[in-house]
Amino acid sequence: MPASNCALRIEGLRKSFDRPAVDGIDLAIQPGEFYGLLGPNGAGKTTTLRMVCGLLQPDAGRIEVFGVDALAAPREAKQLIAWLPDEPLLYDKLTVLEYLEFVAGLWRMDAAVAARNAQALLQRLDLWSQRDQRCEGFSRGMKQKAALAGALLHEPRLLILDEPLTGLDAAVAREVKDLLLERARAGCTIILTTHIMDVAERLVDRVGIIQSGRIVAEGTLEQLRERAGRADATLEDLFLRLIGRAEPPAP
């Protein structure tokens, strides 16, 4: 696939700390795709995504975001991306509406557009009635929803989510999943990491499985089933098989 037709293209990406964390990853994600990057703890998922977002400098490799060289033109690439880490980062002394106004200022958004987007997102995430409350009083779920609103405010073309459902109750998790599916159907490219395999199975179009800093398998659920020779396997079953871990015994 030509680079200009990819939402994200990674070639030969490498990063080492005491040992290789990302060891020569190649990846191509299409516009509008909901992509799941899955792997065990320490596999290199977060390190990879931090390099895509410009939070870490790779040791080697190439990153393109919608044809923009993210290493040569980081500011331009970052304008296209939103990053939501597993731990929501808010300013506790701001109200959620003040937080979104602050985010809009960072993106230099038109004030009217920012206000309209903020209201729509807070209403969609059931936070509008709390818009004048300080974030310090929010529950974990409310903070996660506020952070998601901040990530979506400038309508990014590429949304990167690192364990966005961690610690959320079922009702909040459902709200977040529904909103993500809506954004994906509207054309936003989404990359998701999660350890909750049934969530990934229901949400994503395609899966990349990373282990020891390398992509060891990639494809749709049906393609992974075909590779494993198990037409009825769940994503969890396939994941355990592909990373070489024993599957739990049948009850």
Identify the notable features of this structure and list them briefly.
single chain, 251 residues, alpha/beta, Rossmann fold, 6-stranded mixed beta sheet, 4-stranded antiparallel beta sheet, 10 strands
Descriptive account of the structure:
By secondary structure, the protein is α/β, with parallel strands linked by helices. The protein has a domain of 150 residues: 3-Layer(aba) Sandwich (Rossmann fold). Helix content is 36%, strand content 23%. It has 9 helices and 10 strands. A 6-stranded mixed beta sheet has the order 6-7-8-3-9-10, with helices on both faces. A 4-stranded antiparallel beta sheet has the order 2-1-4-5. It starts with 7 loop residues before the first strand and ends in a 9-residue tail after the last helix. The C terminus is likely disordered.
**Strand fraction band?**
15-25%
Count of alpha/pi helices: 9
Question: Helicity range of the residues?
Answer: 25-40%
Which word captures the global form? globular
How are the strands of the largest sheet arranged?
Answer: 6-7-8-3-9-10
Concise overview:
The chain is an alpha/beta fold and 251 residues long.
Outline the fold blueprint.
Elements lengths: L7 E9 L3 E10 L4 E5 L6 H9 L6 E6 L2 E2 L4 H5 L2 E4 L11 H11 L4 H14 L15 H13 L5 E5 L7 H16 L3 E5 L3 H7 L2 E6 L2 E6 L1 H8 L6 H8 L9
Parallel strand pairs: 3-8, 3-9, 6-7, 7-8
Antiparallel strand pairs: 1-2, 1-4, 4-5, 9-10
Helix pairs in contact: 3-4, 8-9
